[in-house]
Amino acid sequence: MLKRGRRGFLKDLAMMGAGVAAGSQLTGCRTFFAPGAKGSAIMGAHYAPLDKVRIGIIGVGARGGGAVHRLINVPGAEIVAISDLYSDRAENHAKWLQSKGRPMPKLYAGTPDAWKGLCDSDEVNLVYITTPWKLHTPMALYAMRAGKHAVSEVPIAVTIDECWELVETAEKEQRHCMMLENCCYGESEMFALMLCRNGVLGELVHGEGAYLHNLADYKMSRTGYQGMWRLEFSKEHDGNPYPTHGLGPICQYMNINRGDKMDYLVSVSSGQFGLTEFARDHFGAEDERTRWEYKLGDQNTTVIRTNRGRTIMVQHNTTNERPYSRINLIQGTKGILSDYPLRVALAPNSHSWMKDEDLAQLMKKYCHPLWDKSGEMAKKVGGHGGMDFLMDLRLCHCLTNGLPLDIDVYDSVLWSSLVPLTERSVLKRGQSVDVPDFTRGAWRTAKPLGIVGV
Ligand SMILES: NC(=O)c1ccc[n+]([C@@H]2O[C@H](COP(=O)([O-])OP(=O)(O)OC[C@H]3O[C@@H](n4cnc5c(N)ncnc54)[C@H](O)[C@@H]3O)[C@@H](O)[C@H]2O)c1
């Protein structure tokens, strides 16, 4: 257990004054500027521009394989190394890269620890993690300690100790640590962000986000997730194990960690019905998947209250029959945006949703610069309608230009901390649970994320 005698905000401020441009000889990523010495808060940190983003990707299953296909379209990026538990997966992706005229990446595959060689390699300057949830933090920590910037699929952490260790390690090593929350780059989400930033919705009051996606068949399949890792997690945990797709964009609308912070949450889960029913219907009563016990309730609902008095509702359901939705709702004093399908209602006509043609005009007026400039290319490359490509594009743009990343370590762990915190509340019959302030007070003065471009 890590000691939690946290450096206080005042101490952080003192250190910020003392620390300047602490040089690191590692991987050519010399610290260019950071707002503090090693070990102090790194909000807004930016490091020396990378001449090229030399990516080592760990885990080339469904998601990592998609990343390989996307990243070859990103200017300034090159995949120089691939790791996977299975050698054939790594080899197949390497061959595919070669078939596209790209240099052969180095392979680190075939054993559970082979990925460490990728992190240690001098050829890599960004470790891109697309493995099962429980491996995200250990891999990101190892990568940062080896001097690499680390980015990881969602959620980046599954315990509160992991969250703190990521913060402390990113601060100590002065490395970027970003969770790859692609939904922050969705077309509707970035349109909503524009409405919020331009005051169109007035003062923000309430948000709703979710991951409502029936994955029962994929979770139960022996050939879906490697080793059925997602089903294993459902056996071990209740609460919301996958909160960040709905939550991340709402936090950006509301400037959470940048002027406001989460104060406390309450979380309640339904019982578990769907997984057992699915297994019985498809595999029979004797199959082990029918007899296993699953702790994860089918439907989890969480409500967060922020220090400024806003509320955020987050839901999770990956088990029951229903259409996909992340809800993506933001309510302000002057209007509301609600997705699935996308609708907007604004004062003084807020008693009904806008007509399609008015909505189209509003979307044109408040199109986010990232979508305006690169949306067409993003749709062509694909990845959840283009948002995955825009995320990679923006990430590599920031790294090659020495800019801060849009999602820093504090955002990454805060959004992920709902995994353990919701479970804690559920197990206490929905009692309120305090949300840790991973910024240790820096949220009060941190500047909101700007309207960014490439
Ligand atoms: N952001 C999104 O939209 C999105 C979509 C799908 C999945 N994901 C996330 O991506 C991650 C991967 O999901 P997936 O669907 O690709 O799962 P998957 O099971 O298809 O792939 C995981 C890969 O990791 C590899 N792996 C496991 N242990 C390893 C080790 N020790 N060393 C190297 N490789 C190892 C496996 O062999 C497999 O190829 C998860 O965190 C998931 O939540 C995100």
Topology:
Blueprint: H1 9-18, E1 53-58, H2 62-71, E2 77-84, H3 87-99, E3 106-109, H4 115-120, E4 126-129, H5 136-145, E5 149-152, H6 160-173, E6 177-179, H7 187-197, E7 204-212, H8 216-220, H9 229-236, H10 244-254, E8 262-269, H11 274-283, H12 288-291, E9 300-306, E10 311-317, E11 329-332, E12 335-338, E13 343-346, H13 356-365, H14 369-381, H15 387-401, H16 409-416, H17 418-427, E14 433-434
Parallel strand pairs: 1-2, 1-4, 2-3, 4-5, 5-6, 7-10
Antiparallel strand pairs: 7-11, 8-9, 8-14, 9-10, 11-12, 12-13
Helix pairs in contact: 5-6, 6-16, 7-10, 14-15
The protein binds nicotinamide-adenine-dinucleotide (NAD).
Main sheet makeup: 8 strands, mixed
CATH class of the largest domain: Alpha Beta
What number is the mean pLDDT? 91
Within CATH, the superfamily of the largest domain carries the name Dihydrodipicolinate Reductase, domain 2
Uncertain stretches of 5 or more adjacent residues = 1-37
